[in-house]
């Protein structure tokens, strides 16, 4: 192919799952020329990652899709444990956390993955972005100025950077020769299916124990579909993923009949693994989402951690490509995200072994799954100059909480968008000469002071406190790090 026939972009994203779509949305609103290619001919059709944690809902608030996400889903109902064909104990799968002025989304929100992807895709198209379906990345070559990616239709794309968001079997990761270190979380397979059926209420999650393995039905909020999960205690089992196989499992594992299943929409034979890529970057190519880390489904961590990858990487690519920031800023993506992915992998593995491996399928989830406590206190981008501070004080590197402002606005209203935000609390003076991509706001309400304490706080575009200081002179040098 002639060089002048090669399409040129800022960023090529491989994979149109939640990670790739969220990243493409963030890049589009920053004016970054990006393209998503997806080897499948459509969006993923299954419910797989259905639990959106509070922190992910905050990301979706910023990306402009939270109202649609909230209307498309619902909270997790209580679980009925069936015994001998009769409803028994009713238990809560997750602790329930009401919203507060600092945490507007208190509970995990159930939205099937296919619906989340539809919503993200619609938002991307609204911003002028697109996905090329049925187009796979087949090879790439890097040099000092960019990456040339070969595609399955014989064409090529030249991009400054490539992001592999192409899943646990990532073609890009394998092409780069990046290994994954991991373990089998559970040698026993799970069958997961999306089905329509009659004969049971949609007001509860339904759970059954059975000598051949447990089973559970989740009523997928906002739909007439149930997600059905069946555990097989034999590692050599080969679940029958046909429609008839699913119907037989319903009849065997529950008190329902095979005929109660009206339609089988999607099935998967799943063997839980936990694995972490040895590195998240090779030159101008980055790994994100399942391409970088593979989780057990327990605790709803995989999709949520993946969205956070995209949210962390998007603003950094934007500042390098559009604000002239030193490309060394991109080194902080792996430095910040790899340790968090490792910690979350440990959490999801522990939850799996505490519940699913025991055949219960519904161990109780607490605040540690909400991802609100994750942050970057040890990052090179984090600067805390105030001292001394109380042990429980909000510090640089922490998630920036919401709080009301004067005039009926909220801090999350001020944060929304692709900019940095300088929050002045307790009468702190806002310095002059801020660049246009730093928006300043005064937050002197009692609840703002309760959350932040007094001082100046530079909030990164991904909602974490980059700088916390009492001295206005610290702000200019800090924000200068993110521009040319």
Q: What does this protein look like?
A:
By secondary structure, the chain is of the alpha/beta class. Among the domains are: 3-41 and 109-181 and 274-369, FAD/NAD(P)-binding domain, CATH 3.50.50.60; 383-482, Glutaredoxin. The protein is 25% helix and 26% strand. The strands form 5 sheets. Strands 1, 2, 8, 9, 10, 11, 19 and 20 form an 8-stranded mixed β-sheet that branches. The longest helix is centred in the last third of the chain and has 24 residues, at 331-354. It is globular and about 70 Å long.
Number of strands: 26
Q: Sheet with the most strands? A: 8 strands, mixed
| CATH architecture descriptor text of the domain at 3-41 and 109-181 and 274-369 | 3-Layer(bba) Sandwich
Low-confidence parts: 357-364
Q: Can you give the helix content as a percent range?
A: 25-40%
CATH superfamily of the domain at 3-41 and 109-181 and 274-369: FAD/NAD(P)-binding domain
Beginning-to-end CA distance, first to last residue: 35 Å
- Average the pLDDT over all residues and give the rounded result: 91
CATH class of the domain at 3-41 and 109-181 and 274-369: Alpha Beta
- Structural class determined from secondary elements: alpha/beta
As a whole number of angstroms, the C-alpha radius of gyration is 23 Å
CATH topology of the domain at 3-41 and 109-181 and 274-369: FAD/NAD(P)-binding domain
Content of β-strand: 25-35%
Tell me, briefly, the overall form.
Answer: globular
| Secondary structure tally, helices | 11
